[in-house]
Amino acid sequence: MVVDEDALLEQFAAQFAHGPGDLDDTAGLPSGSEDAPDESPATFNTDTFLKGLDDIFNRHAAETEAGPYLEQAAIDAENAGDEAGLLTVLNETMGFNRSQGKHKENQWIVQRAIELALRMGLEGSEVWATTLINCATAMRAAKQYDQAEDLYTQALSCAQKVYPDNDRRLAALHNNLSMLYSETNRLPLAEQELQQALTIIEASSVNPQADIDVASSHTNLALVLLQEGKLQDAHEHAAKALDIYSTGKLTHSAHYASALAGFAQVLYAEQRYSEAAAHYRKALAVIAECYGTDTDYYRITAENLHEAETKASTADDRSAPEAVSESRQQADAAPRSTTDSESEQSSFCPVSGLKLAREFWNQVGKPMIVQRYSQYANRIAAGLVGHGSECYGFDDQYSQDHDFGPRFCLWLNGEDYAAIGEQLQADYAALPRDFTVDEQGTVHFIGDAQGAVAYESKAAPDSQRFSPTTPRAQGANRRDGVFRIGDFFTSITGYPKAPAQNAPHEWLMLDEATLAAATNGAVFQDPTGEFSAVRQGFKDMPEDVRLSLISKRLGMIAQAGQYNLPRSLKRGDGAAAWLSINEFVQATASLVFLINKPLIVGYLPYYKWQFAALRKLSGSMFALLPDVCEQLETVMRLSSAACYGGASFGEGGKGSEPAAEVIADTVEHIAAEIVKELRREELTASSETFLEWQRPYVEEHIQSDNPALHSL
Length: 712
Hints:
- The chain is globular and about 85 Å long.
- It is mainly α.
- Helix 1 (5-13) packs antiparallel against helix 12 and helix 24 runs antiparallel to helix 25 (574-596).
- The chain is 59% helix and 4% strand.
- It folds into three domains: 5-157 and 247-316, Serine Threonine Protein Phosphatase 5, Tetratricopeptide repeat, CATH 1.25.40; 353-539, no CATH class; 543-709.
- The chain has helices spanning 5-13, 46-58, 62-79, 83-99, 107-119, 126-141, 145-162, 168-183, 187-204, 212-227, 231-247, 256-269, 273-291, 296-314, 320-332, 340-343, 353-372, 389-392, 414-429, 485-493, 504-509, 512-519, 530-539, 543-570, 574-596, 598-601, 610-618, 628-644, 657-680, 695-699, and strands at 381-384, 409-412, 435-437, 443-445, 464-466, 481-484, 522-525.
- The chain contains 30 helices and seven strands.
- The strands form two sheets. The chain has a four-stranded mixed beta sheet, with helices on both faces. Strands 4-3-5 form a three-stranded antiparallel beta sheet.
- Pfam families: DUF4037, TPR_10, TPR_12.
- Residues 507-609 form the DUF4037 domain.
């Protein structure tokens, strides 16, 4: 059966737009202009907009009317100069596009919403938390999980400060985090987040027995429990959700479909196929009425209905859990990308370093900590961050000749490190590191006689076995193991925590590659949030510093690419031209990351992985200046011919001139694209494409008068 619990969580539990009974996605957003809409075409009324949107959903006309309505509202708000109203529209649009599976359409909306909120000075407010939640959920729906988790982490940090303890928006955030953990196969964390959400909602409810949000939380929890194999608990929560819809006379709500489909899935797992099919039919009718038939929601449920009907009619003897397991394996197992010769090399591990680290933590490290350090288990952060190709996710078969193997970091506060750090490091070093990888790419760790914990391999007999060697980086220079949080970041950046927001000179001393190493990788758990808060601090580059760096990069692009490169070529100094191209490319690559905002996409890493990172960013549906990467590679590809081709180089003796002309045209095209983006972000009012002249316009937006931030 094509049953995807994660898809159902996304399908029904993600809180939808501004409809009745939702965990409100727009609560706390600033109200817009209160002018009457008919006084002038250049006015926008937020309340009128939301009422009109509610009417569309109440009439179940969202499939045909919501999209055009939202597009026109964004135009009206922008024309009226109503930034608060526009932010409300953008948040609503993200929710609608997500529900329709229109992830590409959300591309510029997510970026624009964050930029707008920052420009409005909303960082740290309730509105900022709400906007981050919506952006993170859009990123999660687009399967951009790392970026989504970063945004959710920021949102939770902000929400816990500005929301009351029993605020339902806080419950919605825990609910969304649970979906992220579920989709990334961290089910215990998903269950924990849902339990927190349910506790908050029940505490805030006047009547939990008839509360639609309580019902939704029970459904979500049932689906996660089902994935964990806790069938009886899943049935209880799924049935409770239906009871609430019935008691509260809420069966005409769009979210009723979630409860029906959730209970159907539990029934299927219990091999009660006819009953499952009946509930899927009811869910399908609700989805068609509320969302239409041309949606992922409808298609997934229709497939599940078909499978349930097939099971009911054929009375297949296989158990539902086996069927679900097999279909999940078929859906999740990616074809191995190795060549025939590679597959014969037993030394090549087909698993990425980050995946190996996560499995090493889940299978070996975490059980050891629970067993030996139970009182500290909820205070230790774990993950893999820092130096190394795998921390960027760029490792491949060529990266496995050094420092490759199962490893992770454990981060403790100063007090805990003093108490257990030395012994925990010894226990970490003693963990068994031999593992096998089966044909599906599943990792199984194998305990040895002296391992801290004994593990029995469940891998197939023909699985590849790996016995990693000891990494070269040991002692004070080690890249994994047990660290004080402050010491870890000091080893990378020289700072135990990020410089203060009002210390721009310190930020300018940290190059982007250093900041990339401090903020890359993945955090597997952080119960107290201490490590993530410090890590996020390094990501949160002050806006004045970002603008100052953008100005500096504009100057170098102009100086090296637009001015010195053509002159060097004309005077025949190939070496100078080559170095000019290098400076131009470095500055442009950095600018792309700065324009896309490090808070969202991270920093440009060191030279070895700059283009791997730039290609990855440019391939994202949310990228700004996405075409620049390919153009830079064109410049580099032609640089040899342009700089050293000579007078008769090339076909027909045309010399190096054609290559030089293409490079010059490409440099100017990149400059024009940069100016277009600067104008879109309202960082300049000028159309001048010689980028040196754009610097004063950009620097006008720097609030501080610190001379370190301004050009001479």
